[in-house]
Amino acid sequence: MAGRGASRVPERWTDYIPLGRRMPGTRFIAFKVPLKKSFDRNLLPEERFSPHDLIRKVKERKEELGLIIDLTYTTRYYGPEELPPTLRYSKILTMGHEIPNRRTILRFKYIVKRFLTDNKDNDKLIGVHCTHGLNRTGYLVCRYLIDVEGMEPNAAIELFNKSRGHAIERTNYIQDLQKRALRSCELKNLGSDLLRKKGGAAAKPQKQLLKPPQHRSGQPPPAVPRNPVSTKKKQQPGSKAQAQPQELGQRHRALEQRQQKKLEQRQLEKLEQQKKLEQKQQRQLEKLEQQKKLEQKQQRQLEKLEKLEQQKKPEQTQLENLEQRQQQKLEKLEQKQQQKLEQKQLKKLEKLEQRQQKLEQKQQKKLEQKQQQKLEQKQLKKLEKLEQRQQKLEQKQQKKLEQKQQKKLEQKQLEKQEQKQLEKLEQRGYKKERKGLFIQAESVRPWGDGFKLPEDRDGWDIGKELFTGRVEKLEQRQQKLEQRQLEQKQQRQLEKLEQKQQKQSEQRQLEQRKLEQLEQPEQRQPCSLAPRNCCISPPPKKKHKGLFPPPSPQPCPPQEPTGARKRRHRRRKHELRQQEVS
């Protein structure tokens, strides 16, 4: 069930408990590395342990995680995006099977102190894990408890083993932690032995105590990182337990170099800043060493004074008082200097973190501004397109309205013209009727007696007849005009339909001709000219060379007489004219 490739489960991962208990008196909790969902296919459902499972199990114990410190030397197991945003995550790349560097130890201490200062009011936990949650996690947690909390090494190791449920396996880690007790005891005894007040017999052991620090000044400091190459050479090649981790480390390095380049580049920038801080710390340590040398000189002077005290006993009391005062002053000065240095370092680290946070905020703001600009550009483009479409639609509507208005104006003009014509016609008809009436009246009138109406007809009867006749004629004329308008409209519609039909017929004819030309090879028409010496027609032009084969040569038909040729020409012209008219 180990699998292959990126979803390969680490060795012996299933042999360990996923989550330990909280270490009493501290906020530390150790667990093995949680694996993302891509590893589930290589594990049984009971063996799975993901970041969501980790948070769920911690909540079941009625506790809350505030920080996760990842000590694995890879990024393939899971990523910070799978954790909730309220949970802090920090990555410290540490090699397995080797004692961590001084840089990693200082970074671990700084992250823990920072978290504890920020979360004094709550009781959130600090989760630490490597691949199995034993060796690297146990070393760094115990180292913090020994160096910062002042706990004894054996007590710290036992407390970690009980709370984790498994014991630390690597002997080199345990031995290095146990050495810390001896070094701390020696440093404490240096000051206490100097303050002892004894006679001349006690002067000799003081000289012996002063020699070891001079001898130790040449040795490396207790937190100097070991060289990974030297540790590999010291391992015995015959033992399988020591050879397997070396092979695993080499494979991990070969597979994960590409993935770690980006992380290393980012961390190198941070490490450079830390280097500057370490250089400042080293300078301060050098100053402290100089102070120690001064103290050693003072101690030598004190020894000389003690010898003089044996010779001059009455002066001893005064010298002792002076020594006590000087030692008290020196201790106070050292304490003040140490406090000032620690405060300065903390302030500088806080300033660096604030700068980093500001830079990150600026980058986020820039990204947000770019995204907003892109969205605004897209919206502007969409609005421009919509405006263009609206403008086009408005232009079309305006054109239609203008056309309608023009048509209405034309119709009104036509109606006005027709009304004028009708009025003219009415006036003409009225005049003609009057002439006819007067002519009739004159025909009835006798010669010499003046104008007389016939006996049977009255003046009113004649007026009525004139009025009724005029109205009937006007109605007849209006009916005729309406019929003419209807006929004109029908003619226009018929003309439009005929034009459309003509266009359609022409298009169909063109399509048919094209199809006929494609289907049939080109044939030479009979020659209408007089025969010449050639009896075979020339070959046609090369068209559609790949589609159709060349036609076979054909002999010219016999020529017709000139009269028949003219008649045929006339017929063709006549047919063409008829087609144009139709």
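the 2nd protein, sequnce then structure:
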Amino acid sequence: MISLRSARTSLPTLLPSTRTVQAFKDRAKSLPPSVYLAQLLVLLLALFLLFKDRPPLPPSAKSSEPYNWGGFDEVCVGEFPSRVCEEYGPHNVKLSRSYEGTGTRFREVFRRAVQENLPVRVAVLGGSVSGGHGIGNLGSDKIWVVKTFNAINEAYPHPDNSLRNAAVGAVGSEYFGACWENRIKKEEVDIIFVEHGINDLFAHESAVTMEDLLRGLLDLPQRPAVLVVRTLGLEADMIAVGGDEHLPVASYYDVPTISLRPVLLPLLFKEPAREREYFVGGDGWLDRRHIGEKGHQALGDLVGSYVVSQLVVAQRQIQDLRSSGHEDWRQLFGKQRKGAHDWPGIEDLGETPKLRLFSKYEPDRVVVPMRTQCLTMEEGDFVSNHLLEKVRNNDGWSERDHSLWAETIGSTFEVELDVTGGKVEIYFVRNGESNWKLGAIQAWMDGDEENKTLFDGYRDGGQMGEFGTVAEGLSPGKHVLHVELSEGSSTPHGGTEFRIISIIAL
């Protein structure tokens, strides 16, 4: 029996000692040649097995040849990504890629664009950071959105390339998951950036609403490429923010995620005084929620690096396609052989998963494609479902300050909704200031008056928009929402008026 102690002490010994070698030679002299050769072969085989998988030792310090340790070179593919690697270091570029995924959708978009000479149409759904808070407007060349688009435009110049910055301040994935169709022209978008990491709270609900958004975007018939962008905000009670709830959702849907935090935060840990270089601020104040010009430059470079690298890969794939003699890229990159042991092949990459991440595993279940209906009082270039036009049996409700407004107790209205995911919500104004006299409503679905839900417009604080769920688990199809202005508000100001911004069916 070998003791644990003797086994441990023998592990680090890689080569036999001089005494052991001499003993082996002396013993070998007394053995027949055939036995000696057999033992020698066993020894050589053991040494081969011991060292065959070990990496080569690095060269000595005196060597003039550089040693390539590898591990990060694949992120520096193409002219622009190479420049980004030189600026930030390839290790930081790698760190920024919280989830790289397969890049399938991006390469599809770029292969199609290059082969058919099509423009690349980019859209951004984000919050105030993407809107340029503190440094410029939606189209400012100082913000990451424009810097990323410029990198794409430089790598793939086309006269009709376009950018639609649909960012809205102070809202997150809860709003966009329901109402994104009112912000972009869904038929005319190829790449969509989603930035809600610091506006969303660190809560499970943020993961659910991000899934609503990603699933809706990925289900578009033109199969756009979607990428989650994470900026850095340090004003919350902890470093973790809603974006940390988004990551498992993004990986489930194979949506790449690029984050500024793994790159910038270690620098600020070492040199806190440099916060003023990367956040919006002025004399005596610093806004750690909104990155400044230098932060936008870094975020734009890191996101652009990933996207352009996918373009470079797609261009190389097209070269392989042409050299193979095929006319259609699908012949080369569509159906391909499955992996070993019958694991899935690559032919289904880029498809939306059949079941939602936050649903029960039911492989035989028939799933209706994700659709949202957002009836809104907001104004916008792409608003096609105006709430007031859809209201019926209206008694006491009218338009005021881009909201559906009433102040007389008993005021009612109905609206018919097309439900696909079983959920109906109301997006309404809440405020606790004394000059706001906000009351409450009750809402219910179809004829189910026994299950009314109360929504209170009063809150202890300033104005905000808030979502409230009327019903869940509804069957797919047409349903009627009933709303009535009622008593029951907690306001100390004696108000009764109520303001509805949007009604959403998921």
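The longest helix spans residues 293-324. The chain has two domains: 73-329, 373-505.
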